[in-house]
Design a protein that fits this description.
Two copies of one chain form a homodimer.
Chain A (H helix, E strand, L loop, with lengths): L29 H12 L5 E2 L9 H10 L10 E3 L3 E2 L8 H9 L2 H52 L4 H26 L8 H9 L1 E2 L6 H16 L8 H16 L1 E2 L4 E2 L9 H20 L2 H11 L6 H25 L29 H32 L3 H25 L3 E3 L18 E3 H6 L3 H10 L7 H18 L9 H22 L9 H17 L3 H11 L5 H18 L3 H8 L18 H4 L7 E2 L1 E3 H9 L7 E6 L11 E7 H9 L18 H7 L13 H4 L2 E3 L10 E3 L4 H11 L3 E5 L5 E6 H5 L1 E4 L2 E4 L1 E3 L2
Parallel strand pairs in A: 1-18, 2-19, 9-11, 14-15
Antiparallel strand pairs in A: 3-4, 5-6, 7-8, 10-13, 11-12, 15-16, 17-18
Helix pairs in contact in A: 4-5, 4-7, 4-8, 4-9, 4-11, 5-7, 5-13, 6-21, 7-8, 8-9, 9-10, 9-11, 10-11, 10-19, 12-16, 12-18, 12-20, 12-21, 13-16, 15-17, 16-17, 17-18, 18-20, 19-20
Chain lengths: 799, 799
Amino acid sequence: MASITKKVSWSSRSDEPGLGEGTPLLNGAGAPRYSRQLSGSGVFPIRRLSTVDLEEDPTAEEESATSHPKEIPHNEKLLSLKYESLDYDNSENQLFLEEERRMSYMGFKCLEISRWVVCALIGILTGLIACFIDIVVEKLAGLKYKVIKEYIEKFTEAGGLSISLVLWALLNATFVIVGSVIVAFFEPIAAGSGIPQIKCYLNGVKIPRVVRLKTLVVKVCGVICSVAGGLAVGKEGPMIHSGAVVAAGVSQGRSTSLKKDFKIFEYFRRDTEKRDFVSAGAAAGVSAAFGAPVGGVLFSLEEGASFWNQMLTWRIFFASMISTFTLNFFLSIYHKNPGDLSNPGLINFGRFESDSVEYNLYEIPVFIGMGALGGLLGALFNVLNYWLTIFRIRYIHRPCLQVMEAMLVAAVTATVSFAMIYFSNDCQPLGQDQAENYPLQLFCADGEYNSMATAFFNTPERSVRSLFHNPPGSYNPLTLGVFTLSYFFLACWTYGLTVSAGVFIPSLLIGAAWGRLFGIMLAYITPYGSIWADPGKYALIGAAAQLGGIVRMTLSLTVILVEATGNVTYGLPIMLVLMTAKIVGDYFVEGLYDIHIKLQSVPFLHWEAPATSHALTAREVMSSPVTCFNRIEKVGTIVDVLSNTSTNHNGFPVVTRVTDGDNDEPGKICGLILRSQLIVLLKHKVFVERTHSRLNQRKLQLKDFRDAYPRFPPIQSIHVSQDERECMMDLSEFMNPTPYTVTQETSLPRVFKLFRALGLRHLIVVDSENRVVGLVTRKDLARYHLGKHGLEELQLAQT
Amino acid sequence: MASITKKVSWSSRSDEPGLGEGTPLLNGAGAPRYSRQLSGSGVFPIRRLSTVDLEEDPTAEEESATSHPKEIPHNEKLLSLKYESLDYDNSENQLFLEEERRMSYMGFKCLEISRWVVCALIGILTGLIACFIDIVVEKLAGLKYKVIKEYIEKFTEAGGLSISLVLWALLNATFVIVGSVIVAFFEPIAAGSGIPQIKCYLNGVKIPRVVRLKTLVVKVCGVICSVAGGLAVGKEGPMIHSGAVVAAGVSQGRSTSLKKDFKIFEYFRRDTEKRDFVSAGAAAGVSAAFGAPVGGVLFSLEEGASFWNQMLTWRIFFASMISTFTLNFFLSIYHKNPGDLSNPGLINFGRFESDSVEYNLYEIPVFIGMGALGGLLGALFNVLNYWLTIFRIRYIHRPCLQVMEAMLVAAVTATVSFAMIYFSNDCQPLGQDQAENYPLQLFCADGEYNSMATAFFNTPERSVRSLFHNPPGSYNPLTLGVFTLSYFFLACWTYGLTVSAGVFIPSLLIGAAWGRLFGIMLAYITPYGSIWADPGKYALIGAAAQLGGIVRMTLSLTVILVEATGNVTYGLPIMLVLMTAKIVGDYFVEGLYDIHIKLQSVPFLHWEAPATSHALTAREVMSSPVTCFNRIEKVGTIVDVLSNTSTNHNGFPVVTRVTDGDNDEPGKICGLILRSQLIVLLKHKVFVERTHSRLNQRKLQLKDFRDAYPRFPPIQSIHVSQDERECMMDLSEFMNPTPYTVTQETSLPRVFKLFRALGLRHLIVVDSENRVVGLVTRKDLARYHLGKHGLEELQLAQT
């Protein structure tokens, strides 16, 4: 895990020094000053990782470039510069304020109503997508198992079982190849569960293409293929991503991909509003996946929100409610039982209702122990997956390799499953209730079925349910043990493959298996076997522990599990278990999603600044010097700055300079303008001549900015003639005249709090004269993190 | 509801003009400028309520003083100046930063652990208090009903029922008098449920004495008395207040009332940390009251939080969990069934488990209709209670009058109950299960009991449970109708009395009664009576609708009800019902708690600035001119400013003046210092002489500020000699050197967002030269609100 970077370019090399967002810092002036300050107050030595300044050692760059030609520089100690931020703080420029002031009270009421309408639409569409996935997966998987079962039954006595194996492996591999090809070649962002991506989006990081229609289509098809392909995956995680895409699409009232603009919801065409809807979409996704509307809201808040807003929470809640209801309603029709609302989610844990499953006080320590075990196993899972992901990033980054890996996993999964079923001779009598959909007789006597087959020869959702509810004695302890072990490694290998798939269900399944095993063991070793009678209860607790140990959510997961089991009796034990799992797991390694976010070098802002960062102030944190514009700026200058690919700034303070001739003196802040706004201005050629007569007669409106949102053209696509370069541009009307500012002495936690709470993208640092001296962006804050040895600083890299 | 103010003093009258927090505005300069601006952009006329400036019309003041001598100026269009704010933004002065920098990583870990310990203690103590209340109420009420039952049975045939009535009324009145006297004479803040007060506290308003030990003692005793006294009240609401007090006490590691300092948790002695614990305490209270730990967390967030912090949420969750567990554990011991954790909360709705109570799709419109009805009835309740409260504020503000009113209500409640029981001849056969604790035979045949008596002759909690679970046919529709009607008015009259009592249970009871009636009616009028068979289901929905219509919570209430019923099947209908109730109710009038907050003229900050307030900027909103101090200021000046009772400022910008001689020129901002900090400085006499030699050798530490927190002495108690007045005070070390600032052009929504998200108390408005031109405080923002006719401005009054 050496911190190797293939191509790192520091801003101080650029010709026009200055920093906006997307600019590395470590500027010559900042670092020494900062070190001095530290040695002055001198308690926290900050470990600078690989303090070699690449610029001063030009060989380093080449070396790394030659010695690891194929290696992509990924490392959890790096912060990528390729991610931009979203503008969760409104740019309150003159146009915006004028529009707001023109709007009547009724106008705001209508807006509010349309927000609710959008949330209803999000809920309905998310529910329908969930419904579609559920039905298609059920049909495909049913078909597949039926075919294989026929073959197995036909050939078991003939001894030609290998044919069945080949058939099974082939069928699985076919599904998985399809799923993997569309992901790898058409939309790589649709890989995995999508939860890390949505977390980043809600945090304020712009992940390219994450909420596009194409992503949704690939995601939905991909998840159907991977589940039908028998991989150790779930279809629940991807629902969250799907819901988010639906939300982002519906709320904009148009589809850029389909080139269709419905001319509605134009007011919502900015990042702030879109984010709110995406939260609702994610919640609707959880709600449809688990039938857990409250859990969905909490998930959205726990993973995404920064500012708690009551009205927003209610809308999110509304979307979740509609989503689970839609799914329930349509599934009830599909199951030819309209009106019977018993399918609130994709996964159905079945009811835990009988009195036998109540727990007792003396069981609580046992549950806590299981939580600790879950934490340990979860940490192991995460560490293994971490190594695997590092390996994948380094060596399996070509699409065709990725498809081959997915195919391999599919084949291995089928083989392992088959071997397990083949070598196990755990025969159980066929129950009267026919809970198993595809009971395999194999070498069992008539009237019996192979119990290992129920675990493997089924969709994971059904297996989980069987583990929860099958009566005591349905499973042989050895079967469960072997199953746990093999499924653990399969699931770990599978997560991170280039397929759309979630990790919730595999985690639950692993946990349910060892939990049930644990319950059976308890009944064996204790004298009063009867009181531990129900292993299903332990399966549930084990499932919670394992899932908690892997993803490390507590509050939202508790509610999701309670809602999915339909019983609040287990609320307390589930909470305890999840909390224990989190505490134990956090001791070793972070949660799975956070690991993946870190490995992508995403500048993710956590809840608070690192505890020991009070020694740092805005002066050390900020980037400087800053590229500023004058209130009335030459078009040529603007085009040149925007075209400078080495800096690629996104936000520019607008200043009024006191001494016009001497440009070295920083100017007084009077506003902030974004790259996207400048692009629109240039595109519409809103120039004034030196005589201040406006060239372009048409007044630019907010609508022009909204129409361009969110895919602003690159500067290269805008042609500016030599004459036009000599014109001036008056930015006053378009800049945000009241950006937030802090002074240089402000401590890092204070800067962080302001930045995080208000969802800022650029925070201007001024001196006592209100002159711009620096700019703080997301990357400047995200690079400080608390490592094992105190405060560490991540490197910025152009990965 | 005329807006009459007895004593209003505007700041512009004060000798030393200037504004800090707690200063009225409407300054001569601000208003006209603002009106001009409005007529310029001119879309939203802002209604200025009673624009008569009392100062220019001196007779107005006298008139109101003479014509309504006894009248206290309360009006929902006023904003009281008596409420101060809490400092939820840390004052990051040099002392604080030094301490933070000195602290090691382990130090922060220890702090984090002690936070968890405090939360555990909060949970345990809150659970124990709930346990105590529950047991004492049960004992007392049991004793009372037993005595009365004996009397009734003895005298029913002798015809001397009036003796029983008198006895009942007397017993009730005695309890209520005790409860009312301790509240009215010892701690008036303990009246009511305490939820509005805790809402205000979490919002950042300092309600005097709200989290003191004395308040807790009075609250607990008061609630026992009022429940035992048979009033139409619940003991659940007060648990929230109790939990909050426990939290505020435990987290400080000392009791000022008991003069005991444990020298622990000293780090938590500031408003920011205390607020976090109070949130946890409130959640623990809800959790103990309803056995709803998740609901508790959501309640805390919905009613209080502004910034969602994951770690904080988990701690809150932990406290809630411990609280319900403690209650459950000790109640199980009390009920001689240790280990049986079936009493998670004070109220137990009983289990809704049988399949017969499942709902069907076609019932959903019916539920929504019930939600609308609940919203209507809730609005009616609130409007009636609003008028009643206005009446009470005007005429019943002496403690003895308040006690008399409480006594009257107690007697009337007993009389009404008795009359109902007496005149109803709804006899039901005694069930085998003996669900009723005190079945009254009265004039019924042997083996039968009076059904009206089960509703009235019982604690409200038991009545609710009976309505939910008694088999169909237990209640006569007429009985239910009459009961609903009488209990509705009784509960409405009772809420707001000078007793400690909650409104949750009465609301649930009213709703359960009409809900059950509704269910019975449905079964009558529809052809397929059997499908509506279970009236208990409708009782539950009715209870939710009524409670939602009165308090207007949605998300948290859904979860609370789901957790209290122990069944998530009803999650969806309960949500729908609560949402409908809220929408319908909000159309007419606000929620009950908001009404009471408004009637107290509390400067409560809602979630967002009014929608149509973009036309306003910081310039119009701010108070100015501002009283500022120099970095090195004369002690005499400071003492004079602090002693000025007409302004009573709490925060002072510290400035450096460019031209020393001319004081009219506003100085450049360099910090912010609080009244409380200045008081501590004066008390410790940290003066420097003109020669800059420090007089007081002892260096002041953070500990000195913490020891004085939260009851800083008044300025009058600090003696400063004439010599000392001539000394200077160096504020640099103690002021917050990096206060948040905004420019004058910042729009109100932007100011509001900054203020609310960061929990500020003072926000400094500067011009382009960083000179202080104004100060925005809570009252400046809270006074804008959206009325029926657009943006309205509340008046500030020294009530």
